[in-house]
Specification:
With 140 residues, the chain is an all-alpha fold. The protein has helices at residues 14-35, 40-67, 73-97, 101-136. It starts with 13 loop residues before the first helix and ends with a helix. Bound molecules: fe (ii) ion (2 copies). One fe (ii) ion binds at residues 61, 76, 80, 118, 122-123.
């Protein structure tokens, strides 16, 4: 297992946290499939799942930010857009070159490390703001 969920990744906003758990599981599946020398199709399937799940997750986070007038919405959205572009580029590369140990390294850094940093920084700040706003407005 390349990445492990622990409380240092918990933003305290349950829906967001549950989606982050799924993202980390999807990330581990890509690394595992690449490492085990699974075929291109198998690795592509795991990447395809991550791509779809990421789009859904980012969209949910962005809706929350809009709903509560999050002041850093635009910059947060830009980070999301940049990451989606990175995942797209990586997918294209894997389709072209096939999975490899080098690819595991790239996926680990470009996807895994980015995701963990984003969760611990941007998502933590967003979750704290959204939770406080929701409490203020008497919502969950
Ligand atoms: Fe997130
Ligand atoms: Fe985010």
């Amino acid at each position: 297992m390349a990445y492990q969920w622990d409380s240092s990744l918990e933003t305290g906003y349950e829906k967001v946290d549950n989606q982050h758990k799924q993202l980390i599981a999807a990330l581990n599946n890509i690394i595992l499939a690449s490492r085990e020398g699974k075929g291109k199709d198998e690795v592509f399937k795991t990447l395809d799942f991550l791509t779809g799940y990421t789009i859904m997750h980012f969209s949910d986070e962005e809706k929350l930010q809009v709903k509560y007038d999050y002041p850093d919405y635009l910059i947060h959205k830009r980070y999301h857009d940049e990451f989606k572009a990175t995942v797209g580029e990586l997918t294209a590369r894997i389709v072209k070159e096939g999975p490899s140990e080098e690819m595991v390294g790239i996926v680990t850094t470009a996807i895994g490390d980015w995701l963990l940093n984003h969760i611990k920084g941007d998502d933590f700040r967003m979750a704290a703001y959204v939770k406080a706003k929701a409490a203020e407005q008497g919502q969950e």
